[in-house]
Amino acid sequence: LTNIRPTAGFAIVLGFLLIFQWKTAFAWGVNAANCDQHVVPVQQAQLSFGSIIAGTVAGTITVDTTGAITSYTNVTPAGGIVSAASFLGDDSGGGGPNGPNGCQNRSLVNVVVTDATLSGPGPSMTVTGMTPSIVTGTWAYRTVPLTVGGTLNINGNQTSGSYSGTYSITVYYQ
Amino acid sequence: MCVVFIMIFMNNINKKQMLRIVFLLAGVIPFATNAATVNATVDAQISTNATLSASTGMVFGDMTAGNLGGTVVLDPDGRRISTGTVSLNRASVSSPATIGLSGTPNGLYTIVLPSSVVLNDGGANNMIVTGFRSFPDVGGQLNGSGVATVKVGGTLNVGANQGFGNYSGSMAVVINYF
Questions:
Q1: Inter-residue contact A87 to B40 (CB < 8 Å)
Q2: A62-107: per-residue pLDDT in tens?
Q3: pTM attached to this predicted model
Q4: Residue burial B55-87, b: 16+ Cβ < 10 Å; e: rest
Q5: What are the CA-CA distances from residue A65 to residues A8, A32, A45, A87 (Å)?
Q6: What distance in Å separates the CA atoms of residue A28 and residue A149, rounded to the nearest whole number?
Q7: Do A12 and B15 touch (CB under 8 A)?
Q8: In degrees rounded to 5, what are phi and psi of residue B72?
Q9: Which is nearest to A152 in space by CA: A66, A81, A7, A50?
Q10: B9 secondary structure, DSSP code
Q11: Among A40, B48, B98, B166, which has the minimal tally of Cβ within 10 Å of its Cβ?
């Protein structure tokens, strides 16, 4: 008997695992089947700093997550379209129909936004300090936009014209 | 992978530990983290810091209306012609309006001209200037030194037997900087 105890123990454990796996499969099938869809952020509005008059020395201008200019140094805001970036979640790529209401929210565990480099007629500019409106917690991704603000770094005597660039946003969720 | 891991070490753990692992797994699997990355765009417009450095008004010069009247057309380049019974006094000075701009080198700008301007002799007589034209026509770019000149001409409409006198008015030219 001493020699077969490990075998018996193994059988019992395997039984537990099988039961556990069955319960897990059952739970996903009933409660979370449609919540297993992949949620991809889709840009609704782009981050725009509007028109800016550069100074003779380097400066900055910051747009917050509401799209407001909250601070600027050594430059002058000159109107134009100023807006924060805005994203809603798209779950259509995960297969299956939309789930019940409980499935339309996601619990975010992190949001990572990279810096951007803007190119145009003059020296390149960078956008740093990207700030998401939500980092953790529930994201009702179909109706509540996740917005992003940041700080544009402008060179002294920056050449006038249009500048644009890209950055990436990664949404980690459960 | 998790299942294999437990089976290998099964002999070294007791039942209590084993259940602890099972419950631990039960807590982890349903809450696996997902991630999605997308690229997004950002833009900004650096504007020209520009000012009006100098300006002079539009001068059509001296003329005689004649019994039918007509027009005096003043080009942005300074050429002047008349139509109808209007005759020009070539000895008099005429010139297009001149607007000097200065600001950020290579800065862009556009020009918005008035549609019409009324000239008055200080009494009851009026003439209307229409057909405003500029050079450059709709906009341009400051040069490498941050300087540009805009010239504006137009068409003066002279009535039949237009009353003698000096006529004047004011026009607004809007320069938009980018």
A1: yes
A2: 999 999 999 999 998 988 899 999 999 988 765 444 544 446 677 8
A3: 0.55
A4: eeebebbebebbeebbbbbbebeeebebebebe
A5: 60, 32, 12, 11
A6: 37
A7: yes
A8: -120, 120
A9: A50
A10: T
A11: B166
Burial level of B107, CB count in 10 A (0-12/13-18/19+)?
buried
d(CA A60, CA A70): 11
Residue B111 Cα to chain centre, angstroms: 7
Nearest CA in chain B to A7: B11
- Residues B72-107 have pLDDT tens digits of 999 999 999 999 999 999 899 999 999 999 877 777
Neighbours of A28 (CB within 10 A): 14
- Name the residue with tokens 């059952």: A26
Interface of B with A in 20-39 (CB under 8 A): 22, 25-26, 29-39
- Which chain B residues are within 8 Å of A152, Cβ to Cβ? 44
Query: Does ipTM come in above 0.90?
Result: no
> Rounded to an integer, what distance in angstroms lies between the CA atom of residue A91 and that of residue A98?
8
Mean pLDDT of A146-158: 95
Q: Are B53 and B76 in contact (CB under 8 A)?
A: no
Supply A153's token pair: 């770094």
Query: Hey, what are B62's tokens?
Result: 């001296």
Give the Cα separation of A162 and B55 in Å (integer).
29
Separation of alpha carbons A148 and A167, rounded Å: 11
Chain B residue with minimum CA distance to A78: B47
d(CA A86, CA B142): 36
Tokens read off for A138: 């529930």
Burial class (CB in 10 A: 0-12, 13-18, 19+), A84: buried
Could you give the count of Cα atoms lying within 13 Å of B28 in the half-sphere of its Cβ? 7
Does A20 contact chain B (CB < 8 Å)? yes
Residues A53, B49: C-beta atoms closer than 8 Å? yes
The structure tokens listed for B161 are: 């037997």
Of A85, A174, A34, A86, nearest to B35 by C-alpha is: A174
Asked if B178's CB is within 8 angstroms of A167's CB, the reply is: no
B136 prior amide bond cis, ω within 30 = yes
